[in-house]
Amino acid sequence: MEQGRFLIVTGMSGAGKTQVLRTLEDLNYFCVDNLPAVLLPKFAELCRQTPNRNAAMVVDSRGDSFDKFVEMLEEMKVNGFHFEVLYLDASDATLIRRYKETRRRHPMEHGHNSLAASVALERKALVQVREMANQVFDTSRTSVAELKLKVRSLYGGEAEAGRMLIVVQSFGFKHGLPLDSDIVLDVRFLPNPFYEDSMKHLTGNDAPVGDFLSKFPQTFEFLKLECQMLDFLIPRYESEGKSQLVLSVGCTGGQHRSVFIANKLYDYLRLKSYHVELTHRDLGKKA
Q1: pTM as predicted
Q2: What share of the chain has pLDDT > 70, as a percent?
Q3: Residue 271 burial by Cβ neighbours in a 10 Å radius (0-12, 13-18, 19+)
Q4: Can you tell me whether residue 147 is helix, strand or coil?
């Protein structure tokens, strides 16, 4: 029986390993996050006993036995395990900015280490691992959608490799236009639930907001026209070999109207069996 792929995801903290693992889960990989390095050979043996099932695990500096990582990789090679290593990287400036934005603590931020010193310490500890990697992704200037597409094309098999990815995203104009947009839809003409006291603190994911917007004929007239436009455009983009189409739907704050419309367009494209992802860029930001 054919052995499934055994993928080890590692690299710099903040470079996108969690997003990669989520994408692999969508590709039906059996996924484990933060696996201790000393368990790698045992886990690989278990996976070898389950043919035709792909497996992926994140091993990084959060683990207590991280200093044994290279040793375990060498042991697996000696014992004849077939595995791949995907290394996620980003510039120091990018990693520091991401950590400051999320206010998370860096796994190597011990004692009085500064964030910059922690990043430098981790990079030094990963030098040998990086040299053993089959693939290295630098995510410094890579959007989430681009990273997903890259993972799908490399690890999704033949069925995923040639498909165009459609990313439907909501956003708020007050927070800036998404720079990766191919098509931008402005739904600020729709009545705004923000001015209804009972819905001010809700979002387009909540039923009362959907019920409110559904009362207006222009909501579904707009959706009908946009679906017709997508029916016309998408096959033509695909025939031109486009690998990714980013459809951005904007309202003022990115909380109500754009979220509702993006959800509806996503549902429509899913029903049409397109390869589609949904994200709400500004959901939860202050209006």
Answers
A1: 0.58
A2: 95
A3: exposed
A4: helix
